[in-house]
């Protein structure tokens, strides 16, 4: 079997596994003052420093959460003011899209969804327009798309939003640990990440809140006051230790992995284009994550293609949306027809993927597409 669904979740790195198991062997609540508590607090501190190092921010600017869904909710709900405009892109993950829609449910005129072009690049003209005319609270645009890997050039967005007095949030879940991201240079106010996309455990994430960012203090969870009051609840010490270890490993190998994984993507795409007539790479002209290929096999439903290659774990659209009857909102926003959106397979890969895996996936895909096309042709006769 070949695992090419890193955007749904990446494998656990051995460094993370080790840190998690070690933390599990030591009882201790990071808030307790005795030696066991202090041991737990030290693991949390180390994890926080390791994540901060990957992002080049201060450890105190990170709030640990249960994942990027919670981090996105915390960011948007903390920033939202009922009478100002919230700006997002049309291709956001549902954790942002649905949160923004629920916050503006009774005032849909206060939500602006920036469209994207055929390559998935966000159109900034509507942002310029609202910045000039309306009062904004927050602009939230993802740094890398989970379905296509298309990267956003955040700098012009930050400039426009800050000039208009708005805060900038980015859902960087798919970028962190995969492509360098330097928070000393990228002046976003808030950033969400999730550990399980870079080799940490599922169920742990973080929200970066830039020191000095003026946002209303509005936690989602109130209670014992952990995480400086931003997120109450006993800290997930093993999860945070594993997240830190994964962040450190990702940082250590980042530059070489960008090259190596990028070469794998080139191989996958050139082979598919050569061997599967008519296939199209989505977002081909945009800057993209090294480890994601979204490919449309026109006339060939992706669910049938995936079913015909059970040894390859790839996905149809995003994991969160698959199984649901609705086509990908991301691909539709890029102008694909419903049929083409339904005929799209996402391969996502990373640190543990080999050239052999890619070769295997190409061979399996070529056979699967031929099989499905032949079956459809036979059925049509
Ligand atoms: N944002 C993006 C862009 C994602 O890809 C995901 C994971 N599918 C999430 C948010 C949600 O992350 P989590 O699973 O940690 O809640």
TrEMBL record:
Keyword line: Aminotransferase, Iron, Iron-sulfur, Metal-binding, Pyridoxal phosphate, Transferase
Matches recorded under PROSITE patterns: AA_TRANSFER_CLASS_5 (PS00595)
Enzyme class: transferase
SUPFAM superfamilies documented for this protein: PLP-dependent transferases
Reactions that this protein is recorded to catalyse: (sulfur carrier)-H + L-cysteine = (sulfur carrier)-SH + L-alanine
Molecular functions per Gene Ontology: cysteine desulfurase activity; iron-sulfur cluster binding; metal ion binding; transaminase activity
Keyword Electron transport included in the entry's annotation: no
Domain Aminotransferase class V, first and last residues per copy: 2-358
EC number: 2.8.1.7
Leader sequence segment: none
Needed co-factor(s): pyridoxal 5'-phosphate
Highest rank taxon of the organism: Bacteria
InterPro entries, per database record: Aminotrans_V_dom, Aminotrans_V_PyrdxlP_BS, Cysteine_dSase, PyrdxlP-dep_Trfase, PyrdxlP-dep_Trfase_major, PyrdxlP-dep_Trfase_small
Family the UniProt entry places it in: Belongs to the class-V pyridoxal-phosphate-dependent aminotransferase family. NifS/IscS subfamily.
Protein name according to UniProt: cysteine desulfurase
Organism whose genome encodes this protein: Actinomadura physcomitrii
């Amino acid at each position: 079997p070949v695992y090419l669904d890193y955007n749904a979740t990446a494998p656990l790195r051995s460094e993370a596994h080790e840190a998690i198991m070690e933390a599990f062997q030591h009882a201790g609540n990071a808030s307790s003052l005795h030696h066991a508590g202090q041991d737990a607090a030290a693991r949390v501190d180390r994890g926080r420093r390791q994540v901060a190092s990957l992002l080049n921010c201060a450890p105190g600017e990170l709030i640990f959460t249960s994942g990027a869904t919670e981090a996105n909710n915390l960011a948007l709900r903390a920033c939202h003011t009922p009478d100002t405009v919230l700006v997002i892109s049309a291709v956001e993950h549902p954790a942002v899209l649905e949160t923004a829609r629920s916050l503006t449910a009774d005032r849909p005129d206060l939500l602006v969804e920036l469209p994207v072009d055929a390559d998935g690049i966000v159109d900034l003209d509507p942002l310029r327009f609202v910045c000039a005319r309306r009062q904004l609270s927050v602009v939230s645009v993802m740094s890398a798309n989970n379905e296509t890997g298309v990267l956003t050039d955040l700098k012009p967005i930050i400039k426009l939003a800050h000039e208009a007095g708005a805060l900038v949030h980015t859902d960087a879940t798919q970028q962190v640990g995969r492509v360098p991201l330097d928070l000393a240079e990228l002046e976003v106010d808030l950033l969400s990440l999730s550990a399980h996309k870079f080799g940490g455990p599922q169920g742990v994430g973080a929200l970066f809140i830039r020191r000095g960012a003026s946002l209303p203090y509005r936690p989602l969870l109130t209670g014992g006051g952990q995480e400086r009051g931003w997120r109450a609840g006993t800290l997930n010490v093993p999860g945070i230790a594993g997240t830190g270890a994964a962040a450190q490993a990702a940082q250590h190998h980042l530059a070489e992995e960008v090259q190596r994984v990028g070469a794998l993507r080139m191989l996958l795409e050139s082979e598919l284009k050569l061997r599967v007539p008519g296939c199209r790479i989505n977002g081909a002209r945009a800057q993209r994550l090294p480890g994601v290929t979204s490919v449309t096999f026109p006339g060939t439903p992706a669910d049938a293609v995936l079913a015909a290659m059970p040894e390859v774990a790839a996905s149809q659209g995003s994991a969160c949306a698959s199984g649901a009857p609705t086509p990908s909102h991301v691909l539709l926003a890029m102008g694909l027809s419903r049929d083409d959106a339904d005929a799209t397979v996402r391969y996502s890969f990373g640190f543990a993927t080999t050239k052999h895996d890619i070769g295997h996936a190409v061979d399996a895909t070529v056979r699967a597409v031929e099989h499905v096309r032949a079956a459809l042709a036979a059925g049509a006769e």
